[in-house]
Amino acid sequence: MKGVVFVELISMAEDLAGEDAVDKVLEGCDLPSGGVFTTVGNYPCSELMTLVQAFSTSLDTPAGELQNRFGRWMFARFAQGYPAFFKDKNDAFSMLESIENEVHVEVRKLYPEAELPTFETRRMGDGALEMIYSSERPLMDFCQGMIEACTEHFGTPAAIERREHRKDDKYVAGFEIRLAA
Amino acid sequence: MTLIESETRVSRQRYQRAVLAKKQAEELLDAKSRELWEVNQKLIGQADTLEQQVRERTADLTKAKLAAEAANHIKSVFLASMSHEIRTPLNGVLGMAEVLLDSGLNAEQRNMAVTIVDSGQILLAVLNDILDLSKIEAGQLEIEERPFDLAELIRTTCELYKAKAHEKGIALTLTLAPAASCWIASDPVRLRQVLGNMISNAIKFTNEGEVEIIAELRKHTDKHNDLILSVRDTGMGIPKSKLSKLFQPFVQVDASVARKFGGTGLGLSISRQICRMLGGDMTVSSRLNAGSVFTATARVGHAVAADRPAPADQPAGTDIIAARRWRILLAEDNKTNQLVFSKYLQGFDLDITVVENGQAACDAFARGQFDIVFMDVNMPVMDGITATQKIRGIEAAANRPRTPVMALTANTMVHEIEGYLEKGVDRHLGKPIKKATLLAALADGLAMLTEDRGDATPVMSRTAGDG
């Protein structure tokens, strides 16, 4: 997993709980990386799961909720750091639809080794979109956080219904996103 | 640790992590840089290889192109020389056979000599067909445009086939539309070839009935007319399945046709190509056992009738040849051709000087007096055209009257003949020369001479038909 995810997770945790608390968590987890992360490096996904669990305990926040907050955090950083992707997008659905075929294409140019999840999308009539997340990592809550942040970014909050299942060793989640009328 | 300190100072571990992260990032970036550099080197190498391959391929192609051009040139040269090499001995064969016919033969011997002449003429026709097709394929067939009497051309062409039709018991009729009785501007030699080919085919494949030639001229624009020449026969006809292949070179209706009727299978292909070069086309409609209609069209120009009929239209009588002991200079390097020339003229009392090259012709001309010069074009030492130019120089220097110079050659390309006429040649005779053609040309030249002698500015620049 790309180092940027770890760096951002630590950033968020510091924002929520302060550096000392984060230092404590990092020292308490016996991570192979020693808690040393750089944005350009790659680290095992298991360390991310360990960190999420540890921050969850330390912050007294359920892991799912922490993931969701992290998803929102990442979306905000994404919107701030890469405005080019938002330039010709007028609504949340076209932004979400562009992840698979625009955003991930650019990511692969910089990081050919990146293991990216897939996001299938399908319009379901007016104001509804189905988005199917499929990944080797169980980051469905993170995903939902991002989707929520996206709909809010465009000023169109939505009701999201999620169904999960496993398929060929993969975590699959179907998100049915309905914009509030 | 005070509150202030804890806000301004970071823990040792945090500092260590930051240092390690920086080092890790630098190492990763170094590795990435090196990877990029290597990939870049590889790309540069590939680009070099590709450029090298392109250069090699280009060089190969250039070489192949040059080789193909050279081969094509060699083929052209070969065809031109073959034309000369085959026509020259054929000239000997045909010439001697014609002379033989005049030498008091008995009936059986005469028959044999006639066969030699006929076979030689067929061989010449085949050779001409092959050369024509080669020229068409090489884009070298030249079309000229000059004014001539259309009706006259059609009549004389039909006339040539009267005997053959009569022999087979077929009627040969000509229907000339009133509009077609005029002068036009086109290529008379090629039109004659096309019409002759159509008539000859029609007679060949018709056993009873008739062959009808229909000539029409229709207005196309103010400047051009459409000439339509149709030849209708009552012959065996052509099966529908074979019609489309009829105009392909080397194709005859079927193999049995070649056995039974002979021919190269080139005539129609050449005729159609000629028609297309003349701005028209050749088409056919046919019904099996009911006959065929071949139609040739050409876009022709308007022309006004010439004041003076072309020489071919009014063959000069040969009386003039016997009128005096004319002094003739022949420059010809080929012994057989020299002999043919002399034999053709053996019935007349003439003073014939024979030399073997252009230089010798100039020397003889400078020393002696000649009434007419016959000049081969391809000769060793000095070619006939250079010699003709020198002769014109000798005349000018000595203020001598212009002597007719008749060029003899197997090169019958239109642009070459025009070049000869510009360089001082008065007429051109294509080899092999028939006796009648030589006598007509000689008579014509001598007639020019008597017309023009005493004229202050003699201008004699005429072209002659090939027959």
Helix and strand arrangement:
The complex is a heterodimer of chains A (181) and B (467).
Chain A: H1 3-17, H2 19-28, H3 45-59, H4 63-81, H5 92-110, E1 118-123, E2 128-135, H6 140-153, E3 158-167, E4 170-179
Antiparallel strand pairs in A: 1-2, 2-4, 3-4
Chain B: H1 3-8, H2 12-101, H3 107-137, E1 146-149, H4 150-168, E2 171-176, E3 183-186, H5 188-204, E4 210-219, E5 224-233, H6 240-243, H7 255-261, H8 267-277, E6 282-287, E7 291-302, H9 319-322, E8 327-331, H10 335-344, E9 351-355, H11 358-367, E10 372-376, H12 384-398, E11 405-409, H13 414-422, E12 427-430, H14 435-452
Helix pairs in contact in B: 2-3, 2-10, 3-8, 4-5, 5-8, 11-12
Reading off the top of the CATH hierarchy, the class of the largest domain in chain B is best stated as: Alpha Beta
Biggest contact: A-B, 13 and 14 residues
* Strand residue content of chain A: 15-25%
Overall 3D shape of chain B: elongated
Beta-strand residue percentage of chain B? 15-25%
Low-pLDDT sequence parts of chain A: none
Could you spell the SSE succession of chain A in H and E letters? HHHHHEEHEE
Measured between the Cα atoms of the first and last residue of chain B, the distance is: 128 Å
Which structural category fits the helices and strands of chain A? Answer: alpha+beta
What can be said about this structure in brief?
The complex is a heterodimer of chains A (181) and B (467). With 181 residues, chain A is an alpha+beta fold. Chain A has helices spanning 3-17, 19-28, 45-59, 63-81, 92-110, 140-153, and strands at residues 118-123, 128-135, 158-167, 170-179.
Kindly describe this structure.
The complex is a heterodimer of chains A (181) and B (467). Chain A contains six helices and four strands; from the N terminus they run αααααββαββ. Chain A has 181 residues and is of the alpha+beta class. Chain A has two domains: 3-61; 71-179, Alpha-Beta Complex (H-NOX domain). Chain A has a four-stranded antiparallel β-sheet with strand order 1-2-4-3, covered by helices on one side. In chain A, strand 3 and strand 4 form a beta hairpin. In chain A, helix 2 (19-28) crosses helix 3 (45-59), helix 4 (63-81) packs across helix 6 (140-153) and helix 5 (92-110) packs across helix 6 (140-153). The longest helix of chain A has 19 residues, at 63-81. Chain A is globular and about 50 Å long. The model of chain A has no long low-confidence stretch (mean pLDDT 92). Chain B is an alpha/beta fold and 467 residues long. Chain B folds into four domains: 3-58; 72-137, Signal transduction histidine kinase, dimerisation/phosphotransfer (DHp) domain (Helix Hairpins, Orthogonal Bundle); 146-302, 2-Layer Sandwich (Heat Shock Protein 90); 311-452, 3-Layer(aba) Sandwich (Rossmann fold). Chain B has 14 helices and twelve strands. Chain B has helices spanning 3-8, 12-101, 107-137, 150-168, 188-204, 240-243, 255-261, 267-277, 319-322, 335-344, 358-367, 384-398, 414-422, 435-452, and strands at residues 146-149, 171-176, 183-186, 210-219, 224-233, 282-287, 291-302, 327-331, 351-355, 372-376, 405-409, 427-430. In chain B, helix 2 (12-101) packs antiparallel against helix 3 (107-137) and helix 3 crosses helix 8 (267-277). The radius of gyration of chain B is 37 Å and the shape is elongated.
